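Researcher: Excuse me, tokens okay?
***
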Amino acid sequence: MIDGTAGVSGRRDPDEALLDNPDALAEHDPGGMLRHTASAGAQVRETAALAAEANLQVLADEGRPRAVVIAGIGTAGRTGDVLATVAGPRCPVPVIPHRSAGVPGWVGAADVVIAVSASGRSPEALGAAEAAHRRGARLVAVGAPDSQLQSVAERARAPFIPVPRRAPARASLWALTVPVLLAARTLGLVKVNEADLAETAARLDADADRCRPTAESFVNPAKSLALGLAGSVPIVWGSSPLATVAARRFGDTLSANARYPVVSGALGEAGRGRVGLLDGVFGGLVEGARDIFADPDEEEPSGTRLRLVLLRDGGLNADEDTDEPVAVEERRAEAVQTLAERRGVRCDVVTAEGGSALERLASLIAVPDFASIYLALAHGLDPMAVPAITEMKELSNQ
């Protein structure tokens, strides 16, 4: 019998002092989620080397595919979003993330299926790999070594990229993403070179150092972001397609690590409806009702309030020939920040840095990843052990 309360703990009010106590952080993080998250740069380097050892060239032997389907769920599914965004709107073929069992009905010999599963046993990835094999589609699989997924790939004589399983899938985003990107590069769909990977890994290393447990809250951007979100209902919006992937990733980690309800998505879509949340009962004050001379640290309204996190990306994809989309995105970002200020809703802004799309994405993901863990720890929750996830898998026999 499953005990639905086993391992559930935590406190409603966050312990801010705990975040500046490295020994206490280590005690409350027995599974080492902070350490695993800090390995993101190493994940990029390791899986790039593993992908280089796989026979990916067979993917390109039959030429450019009609379409590429990335099959997986959860963090594995996010790899498809990353590929679609890095490939950009000028990608010569459709790049389609697929999060249910099997593959779309039109998939056939002209297509490529990339099946991704950190454990190597998710029904979605296994079903997609089996279906691709039956239909004669080119297949590449990414997952744990010596897994069911590797067996399917071997039967199909398809490339398999082994990703060592050292942490939960949500802490292995980069280990799963890099092989997908390199498979797509072999097909001529993305321009990701070794310098891009090296710069992305270096960016992840630098952000891990900035967000290390021994860095105090006032200089640690992840701890500061976590404390700002504590006790709120977070809204995370991305100003561009790239930033939207990061926003949805932050929604994933806030839910799984910190157990917070969160609204996440694209800022452009929010402007067509969800921005109305700022006027709701969890929002701030209407324009004109706020004392602009009040100390913002003392003017915190009672009750649960919204907290806006805006991920901004002013970069331009290499294949874009106009800066008009960026100008529109920047105007929207400025507008929503103004609206939040007028309504008394606090807003945190994370701005992308770096040259390549991949490095900019990394700069938008790294600090929020750490923030979700620090928020969990502040509430006395173990970010590694999520009983509801285990219970859900057992109940559904996955």
